[in-house]
Design a protein that fits this description.
Largest sheet: 6 strands, mixed
CATH class: Alpha Beta
Structural class: alpha+beta
Oligomer: single chain
CATH architecture: Alpha-Beta Complex
CATH topology: tt1808, chain A
Helix content: 10-25%
Order of helices and strands: HEEHEEEEEHEEEEEH
Number of strands: 12
Number of domains: 1
Number of helices: 4
């Protein structure tokens, strides 16, 4: 069986096409990618994140955005779950310019994209100083921060604090997970496991 080959579309063609769609699409540099719905916990994490960032950035020129606006990253269009920009933005724009920190809440359907493709795209975007991948099923995050021309990655969990010197704020990771109950960890519940 022969399948038709899909040709890549240009970024500007994608942006014009997406404006006519009923729901948002990301653009992977080749073709549109449909955005999928999230879980209740995913929504709570993004809400808690945005609320916490708003409070901490109130006296700052930096502002939080997401998840309903997009960014341009290495030729791709992405809708991060959260982001911070420290430059003035045009109110009618749908694209946030010069994001400094980007947040994604990973889900089973987006894990590979969030952990591999977006790491590369965000690293290739000079304004992005920090990329935070929040886990949906435990208080944990993987953080990539710009160190010169490379990324340095590390993990945060439970009582750790996310430090964002590029914005002048810190955020206890636990704040992103307020109101979420996680099932007891299997290894902690089993006697004799170490």
């Amino acid at each position: 069986m022969n399948l038709p080959l899909r040709r890549p579309i240009a970024l500007q063609d994608f942006l014009a096409w997406e404006e006519e769609q009923a729901r948002p699409y990301e653009f992977d540099g080749f073709q549109p990618v449909a955005m999928t719905g999230g879980t209740i916990d995913h929504d709570r994490i993004t809400f808690n994140l945005r609320r916490s960032l708003e409070a901490r950035l109130a006296a700052s020129p930096c502002r939080p955005f997401g998840p309903n606006v997009k960014i341009l990253a290495a030729g791709s269009i992405r809708y991060p779950d959260g982001l911070i920009a420290c430059t003035p933005q045009t109110g009618s724009s749908t694209i946030v310019e010069d994001p400094v920190v980007v947040f994604e809440v990973v889900s089973p359907g987006t894990s590979r994209t969030d952990r591999i493709e977006k790491v590369r795209e965000y690293q290739a975007t000079p304004s992005i100083r920090r990329y935070v991948i929040l886990e949906p099923d435990s208080i944990a995050a993987t953080v990539f921060e710009r160190a010169g021309d490379t990324w340095r990655g590390f993990a945060l969990a439970d009582d750790d604090t996310l430090r964002m010197p590029e914005t002048g704020i810190e955020l206890p990771l636990r704040d992103c997970y307020a109101g979420i109950e996680f099932p007891a960890r299997r290894d902690a519940a089993e006697p004799g496991r170490t």
